[in-house]
Amino acid sequence: MFKIANTNAAVPLMPGSLDHHNQNHQMAAQFSISEAWTGDLSSGMLRLAEWSARLHGLSAQECGLLSLIRCYDAKDRGHILELFEQAATLCSSFCFSTTIIMPNGLRQPLFCMGESNGLEKKYSGSLVGVFIFPRFKLEGPRQITSRQ
Asked: What is the rounded CA–CA span in Å between residue 2 and residue 119?
């Protein structure tokens, strides 16, 4: 899944959307780990939280986009790169899902949601988002099944 949509920063959040009584964080934490990330479009650097950096096989929490996506499933990399390029040129909300291929052969599913903003001036702007890692790993592509 690779989706991007233009956004309007002037559009307010839905009433009650940030009301923590309407969200079940414990249920989400039972099934996944989520961590925020940020990106600076003037430098091209992304800043990840510790767990995200580790799962991406990175030794540092700051990296470039190509370093970030090198561990993603090869068939998804081009789509994800294109999505980030689009987000860097127009204020957008985006999401994607892929699989991290770990050095030991295990596969970690990954969901990402984010947005870009502040692109009014050339060579400026930022990205902000969240990585969601389901609390399981796959042993290989054959372990994934779909029912129709």
From this structure: 22
